[in-house]
Specification:
CATH superfamily: Alanine racemase
Number of strands: 8
Number of domains: 1
Shape: globular
Radius of gyration: 16 Å
CATH architecture: Alpha-Beta Barrel
Distance between the termini: 30 Å
CATH class: Alpha Beta
Number of helices: 8
Helix content: 25-40%
Largest sheet: 8 strands, parallel
Length: 202
């Protein structure tokens, strides 16, 4: 399982402390902050973009990241594919499933994600798996149901599309407050911020 250190809002000095302790994967959710931090960090850092990505900010993100975890709309999927074609690059992404009860969260419905795999997938995008955030609640039964739902969709896609067995392998669920539940539901990545860096610095 991969540990993604959610480093948004934290200064490079704090990131370097984690780096010296052995951490190599960092997650950012603001394009400008990501672009500013990349040249200040060692070259072997693996950057993941984990926030809502606007199509007019692709040039601040796609040249630097190993994985865009938060592809949440057909419009964004198409824009990333076009950027990849124009720049002769294949972009690894996760599709974000809208899991939580909050209306403000971004993401595809289950039906929309299944639809993507029924058609021909974009040539300049490699869909590596799914990402989701559980409902913001202390009720572990609700979180359990959310993670069970995304795990079931992940397994369904792998079963229905055996040709993706080697590439569709990542399930990014779980944060500081709920990662043990996520692990029980097959998480291959957990996104941890507060438990590593402490409260955010604004």
């Amino acid at each position: 399982m991969k540990l993604v250190a959610v480093s948004k809002f934290h200064p490079v000095e704090r990131l370097m402390e984690a780096y010296r302790a052995g951490q190599r994967i960092f997650g950012e959710n603001r394009p400008q902050e990501l672009a500013a931090k990349v040249p200040q960090m060692p070259s072997d850092v693996e950057w993941h973009f984990i926030g809502h990505l606007q199509t007019n900010k692709l040039k601040l993100v796609l040249p630097y990241v190993t994985l865009v975890q938060s592809v949440d709309s057909f419009h964004l999927l198409e824009a990333i594919d076009k950027w990849g074609r124009d720049n002769h690059k294949v972009i690894d992404v996760l599709l974000e499933l809208h899991l939580g009860a909050e209306e403000t969260k971004h993401g595809f419905s289950e039906e929309e994600i299944l639809m993507i795999f029924e058609g021909s997938t974009p040539k300049s995008i490699r869909i590596r798996g799914l990402m989701g955030m559980a409902t913001n609640t202390e009720d572990e039964d609700v979180i359990e149901r959310d993670f069970a739902r995304i795990e079931a969709l992940f397994r369904r896609i792998r079963e229905e599309h055996p040709e993706l067995a080697d590439s569709f392998t990542e399930l990014s669920i779980g944060m500081s407050g709920d990662w043990p539940i996520a692990v029980r539901h097959g998480a291959t990545m957990v996104r941890i911020g507060t438990d590593i860096f402490g409260p955010r610095e604004y």
